[in-house]
Amino acid sequence: MSEAAGGASSVVELFRLPAPFFLIAGPCVLEDERLNVGIAEALARISDDLGLPVVFKASFDKANRSSAGSPRGPGLDAGLELLAQVKRATGMPLLTDVHAPEQCAAVAQVADVLQIPAFLCRQTDLLVAAGATGRPVNVKKGQWMAPQEMRGAAAKVRSAGASGVAVTERGTFFGYGNLVVDMRSFPLMREACDAPVVFDGTHSVQRPGEGAGISGGEPRFIPGLVRAAVAAGTDALFLETHPEPATAPSDSTNMLPLDRLRPLLDEVLAIREAIDPTFTEEGERG
Question: Which residues, including other chains, have CB under 8 Å from residue 267's CB and lie 6 or more apart?
């Protein structure tokens, strides 16, 4: 979503029901200006071509890496400048993760949306600090939690002053090193949280602990899960994307190649158009 497609008020509208279908996309972690801006420009073109609101996502710090030696990103100060470069070049709204309450106010000066990582979705001080910025907040569901348990996280953020809230499904642990996606999660979380539900189609194919000191992944399953989630009624998508995933410093095993994003979105929008709006949640046609 470029500036021509909508301003700050439009971003807030994405994080309130009823929300238009939208996409959160970008690289896992901020890299150099050329790559960050190049991906953002590609996303802006997709947004304009499809009339689809897109929020650019990239992290300044990956604080939950499996190995202490794994690259974490540029850090807060340098990361916020890189995000600002993306905004100046493309006008796209920005989303980034926060890991500590003291980061929130500074991040809110640059980012349009703050995101709470899944492992931190019950950290009250962080949720309250993010909400207190007044920015919309996207809270990712913990991989161990039932959909309805996200009600408390959404309430904490909302009561602290967030202008909007979304909750993101990214799979649930099944045994060791495997995530599964329960398609019932989308209506259940929407009802429990009174918020748009986002499907993270890339982290849902992670295989935590499968790699040598890093998480593995099965990106071949991204398109099928995304199509299923859209058919099941998700309100938005979260897709990490990169022109050359194998070269990415983080999540290289579960990102969607950038050149495959537009074809997948074409399929997604066709599925949404094909869904019969008179088909109720009870499975009966009105």
Answer: 223, 227
Asked if the structure places residue 69 within a domain, the reply is: yes
Written as tens digits, the pLDDT of the chain (286 aa) is: 444 344 455 899 999 999 999 999 999 999 999 999 999 999 999 999 999 999 999 999 987 755 666 678 999 999 999 999 999 999 999 999 999 999 999 999 999 999 999 999 999 999 999 999 999 999 999 999 999 999 999 999 999 999 999 999 999 998 887 899 999 999 999 999 999 999 999 999 987 766 555 567 789 999 999 999 999 999 999 999 999 999 998 888 889 999 999 999 999 999 999 986 544 444 443 3
Number of domains in the chain: 1
For residue 250, being part of any structural domain is answered with yes
> Distance between CA 107 and CA 226 in Å, rounded?
29
Q: Is 115 part of a structural domain of the chain?
A: yes
Judge whether 217 and 205 are in contact, CB under 8 Å.
Answer: yes
CATH code of 138's domain: 3.20.20.70
Match 């602990």 to its residue by tokens: 209
Full residue range of the structural domain in which residue 81 is found: 22-274
207 in a domain, yes or no?
Answer: yes
Residue with tokens 């998508």: 237
